[in-house]
Amino acid sequence: MGPARRSSDLSKHSAEVFAEAEAHPVTVTRRDGEALVLMSQREAKARTRLLSFAAQLITVTLDDGDTLTERMAKAFPWMLALSSADRETCAQDLLDAARASFSTNEPHLAIAELTSWKETATAVAAGLGAAEPEWLDADEKVERP
């Protein structure tokens, strides 16, 4: 978990402990009971999202039909907006990010990858990326603002 603080620090140095808990979870040790963990709501939500993502991945891996990518698209239907090749890449990227998150206890790794791919699929579904981008002439000079 995070660094440990005594329960008395909450009353004596509460602002310092709360500031620390905003940056990372803080374990609060107590003489008369089990240690508690103080963390931001953002951190708690990230951990909840990671557990939800883990549950979806476990469901995908337990299904023995279809390919991994097809099973992933069933669990994450937004993947169907991606091309076949991008679905393959997305499935592998999501698994890799999940493994990294689980092994480092850093939920943001998997959540960022999941969010990034979902936003990409949403943009593709909205028609973005269908037209070729217009590139500026490389010789055109722009003055400094």
In words, what does this structure look like?
- By secondary structure, the chain is mainly alpha-helical.
- Helix 3 packs across helix 6, helix 4 packs across helix 5 (84-104) and helix 5 (84-104) runs antiparallel to helix 6 (107-125).
- The termini are far apart.
- It has helices at residues 7-12, 14-23, 41-62, 68-75, 84-104, 107-125; strands at 4-6, 26-29, 36-38.
- A three-stranded mixed sheet has the order 1-2-3.
- The mean pLDDT is 89.
- The chain is 59% helix and 7% strand.
- The longest helix is centred in the middle third of the chain and has 22 residues, at 41-62.
- The protein has six helices and three strands; from the N terminus they run E-H-H-E-E-H-H-H-H.
